[in-house]
Amino acid sequence: MSLAFGLVGRDSAALYVDAGKITPEVAAHLRDAGVEVKPYEACEADMRGAAANGARLWVDPDKVSASLVAAAEEAAAAGLLVGSDPAEPRAGKAAKKNEDTSAPEAAAAAAAAAPAAKTIKEGVSPIPMAKAIKNPTELAGMLEAQPEPLNLKALTLNPKP
Q: Within 13 Å and on the Cβ side, how many CA atoms surround 48?
């Protein structure tokens, strides 16, 4: 068993996993399918980069680590692009450090948090539900793997005969 994360975009997909857990056959299959295999440790940096560039990330809070979500929220708040030109300065906490702020601190904090809130969309992943749908071959295999029905006698903790 191996722990991995996936980051799937409209035109790209990456699997973050220990390279030692991927066989050459699996690596070739993933490459042919357009999935880039990356080191497990690179996931946080890529999530930060996607969030800083304005990507909206759908995360399942039951499956994604809190540190990855926090990293994406932090990057979104600190580095959302002002316009579509990557050369433009970023409008986040880092860009506003040296500016004179006349707004109250609460308003500034809310403005900084707004990009982060728009970056993360929490929701149940559709993957487990899709995996639950079995084709006829999978169903036959499941039935074949089941032992004969067990005849269990009810046990009771009542000491009375």
A: 12
